[in-house]
Amino acid sequence: MLSPGFIETPMTDGIDDERLDRIPAQRADKPEEIAALVVFLASDDSSYMHGANIFMDGGWVLGRK
After folding, report:
1. What does residue 40 show for φ and ψ, rounded to 5 degrees?
2. pTM to 2 decimal places
């Protein structure tokens, strides 16, 4: 399973920096970064992965208090 965080898209243009400040990576994810992970997960290279939830959120879940 893939759990993406805040993704940079035309819909999120103009979102204030306050939201990005709460993400440890200090930036939004890019669609091509999500796509690269999806390609990996769909490939034979990930055939030994089972039942994993991959958080691709710039550290937001781990960084929350």
Report:
1. -60, -45
2. 0.79
Write down the H helix ranges in 1-65: 17-21, 31-42, 60-63
Residues 6+ apart with CB under 8 A from 13: none
Q: Are 30 and 4 in contact (CB under 8 A)?
A: no
Domain boundaries, the chain: 2-63
Distance CA 7, CA 11 (A): 9
Q: pLDDT tens, 19-50? A: 788 889 989 999 999 999 999 999 999 999 99
Tokens representing 26 are 């200090």
Q: Which residues contact 64 (CB under 8 A, 6 or more apart)?
A: none
